[in-house]
Write a structure and sequence with these properties.
seven-stranded parallel beta sheet; 321 residues
């Protein structure tokens, strides 16, 4: 993908997933000497900025002067309501300065929504999607096929090719206050099903799955359960009952450690269908995807990530293997 960019570049994002794609591409282009210079802008501050050796400028609005004498603009994409149309305004300004504009869609749904501001559609010159299914879905939603290109998410390429851990396993254990250095780590990284399907009646969500996981683990066998909540997760809903459990000291909520660092030390990872699991697959981890009693849209089914489990008895067998 890096061969398509040259000269001077601007990277713009608001959403966290778009941020990682933009940062990864900027890093790789710089590392491989494909561009002369670049600047990176966001209207949001994320803790993971500290994990990148890149200068990220956090601004409310993009000044017109930034787009002069540049070669291209590359943006993430997000829901305009939550991003205040930050990427879309950058695209509009860049096109007024005749920059070539690219936008990256990191998912398989809501394509046109990402480019609509009120009654206006603001499209870049090229919209990059992640695979053939995303391409087909984008066309179904009305995205002009001439604008579409398929490339692997640059963040996943970065993980496979460049990422290295900053901490050893023992160092992370110290941060997590884990004393048993020879223990096994199970990492639960759920999607917030209770929010995404809140208008339907389901017998399964991230909280019930957590109870199934806890019931299935033999904590006396020196196992620690780490839980990394989704950024949208209402934490109190997920964790309000954990402190009452017998083995609650072996169940640790983790919010301030990078996903990849956690994935790196985990022996087994459990989730549903989030990008977190795809990141784990990039690091060739043992992954379980738990789907009892409910069939929400499984957007990563075609990627063959991990093993899919549909009942608690098989979950227990897998967690105690």
């Amino acid at each position: 993908m890096t061969e398509y960019f040259n000269g001077n570049g601007i990277f713009v994002f608001s959403d966290a997933a778009g941020a990682k794609a933009c940062l990864a591409l900027a890093y790789m282009l710089s590392k491989e000497n494909k561009i002369n210079s670049f600047r990176i802008f966001s209207n949001k501050q994320y803790e993971f900025y500290n994990d990148w050796n890149l200068k990220i400028e956090v601004v409310d609005n993009m000044p017109d002067s930034i787009f002069r004498e540049q070669g291209f603009l590359f943006t993430g994409t997000s829901h305009p309501q939550f991003s205040n149309s930050f990427e879309l305004e950058a695209i509009k300004q860049a096109k007024q300065q005749n920059l070539h504009t690219f936008s990256f869609v990191d998912h398989w749904v809501n394509f046109t929504l990402r480019f609509k501001k009120e009654a206006e559609f603001i499209y870049p010159d090229n919209i990059i999607v992640i695979d053939q299914i995303a391409y087909a879905n984008a066309i179904k939603e009305g995205i002009p096929s001439i604008k579409l290109q398929i490339f692997t998410n640059p963040y996943y390429t970065y993980i496979k090719k460049y990422w290295v851990p900053k901490f050893s396993k023992n160092e992370l254990f110290q941060k997590l206050h884990i004393r048993e250095t020879n223990c096994k780590i199970i990492l639960y990284a759920p999607d917030p099903i209770s929010l995404r399907f809140k208008n339907t009646i389901n017998s399964f969500d991230e909280k019930s799955a957590l109870h199934d996981i806890i019931d299935s683990i033999n904590f006396e066998s020196n196992v620690i359960l780490l839980i990394k909540p989704h950024p949208l997760q209402i934490v109190t809903y997920l964790f309000e009952e954990i402190e009452k459990l017998k083995f609650s000291k072996k169940i640790i909520l983790v919010e301030d450690i990078d996903n990849l660092e956690l994935i790196n030390i985990a022996d087994k990872i459990i989730g549903f269908y989030s990008n977190f699991l795809i990141e784990a697959a990039c690091l060739e981890k043992d992954i379980l995807r738990y789907f009892p009693d409910l069939n929400p849209p499984d957007l990563i089914n075609h990627l063959n990530v991990g093993r899919k489990i549909t009942d608690k008895s098989n979950l227990k067998m897998e967690l105690n293997r």
